[in-house]
Automatic annotation (TrEMBL):
GO terms for cellular component: SCF ubiquitin ligase complex. This is Uncharacterized protein. GO terms for biological process: SCF-dependent proteasomal ubiquitin-dependent protein catabolic process. InterPro entries: Leu-rich_rpt_Cys-con_subtyp, LRR_dom_sf.
Amino acid sequence: MKKSWYSVKRLDLRDSMWDSLADRKRKGIRFCMLRKILLRCGSYLNEVDLSFVPYRLHCNAVIVIGKLCHYLKVINITGVCISRFTIRSFVNSCHNIRKLSVGEVTRLCDIDLKMLFEMNPKLQHFEAYRTPITGRCLLHLPTDRIEEVVLDSCQYLEEYFALEAIVRLQGMKAFTINRCKCISGNFFRFLGTQCKNLETLKICHIPSTSYFQSTDTFYITQLSNLKALTVSENNVITDEFLFSLLTTCHNLTYLDISRCSGISNHGMTAITTVPSLEVLIMNDVPTVTKVHLSEASNFKRIECRNSKFMDSVIINLIKFSPQLRVLDLSESPSITNRTLEEAARITASRTNNITLEIFVDGTSVDLRTFNNVSPFLQIVTFPLVL
């Protein structure tokens, strides 16, 4: 029996095994049963995933996890609301954490997270989702180890502490800030001048009340190592920014400009200057009606949901993208059977055996009248889920 428990390395409440342990009347997992299981396998676990919890947990359940699972390396508790005492339980027991993701906490918890960071010098990834922090705790992340920081919907986050953390964490390879009231042009400036090792950057949903100068966004075009950039839901992203970015960031393979109303057809002509670009996400950008890709043939995935594109634009896109695997045209009413007919003809002559999936939910496509067949074309009528 001991040998079988030794093989248990991950605790995930989404697993079907928990159905038998759930109290269906109270719609929760029996605390005594969870504790008994952790007493047997807790010392062998190295990962806990509570990002999605289908059952109600006892208020002390996560505290027990912290006390009984001493060798955890990966902790994700974004799916449960915890107290500061819960964080303290990990401070006292878990000193080998590599990846930590925290969700809602009942009160400001900078002091508690500071203690947890100091007890885990090997921490490489930290995520705060709707976590009440001012950002003071970020100043205590291990500067020589941390590789990724995610700050998502942290409404108490203060600009001063966040910017000071950026200065200290110059070795970061990935940084995300999304839906935080404190986002301003200073974030672009500090990231572009201080974090030259960044490979992945996400700055999303900048508040309309934020202070920006017209040139602030250009600072991140100095990040020559950048491979993936997401700047969705930002009015400050313009055509001029795109030209500057795609002229200097030659390693870029992923770009998400969804819901950026400052981009037009003119800005999209810059796309052809980056042959390395493989993924382009441009959902809900009605100001763009044309994309010319005759010189950019390495695309593997393109999403343009709720677009104003006509058939001719998409046909041209498919023609010059032989590597294209996923094309999401959902909710684009101007797309008709003509796109599918040409897609069937073009993909039928592919010599690389790559199949193209086209998502057509919410378009003007009528599959009842479409009869063309291609071994390398798959038409999907439900929304794309990643």
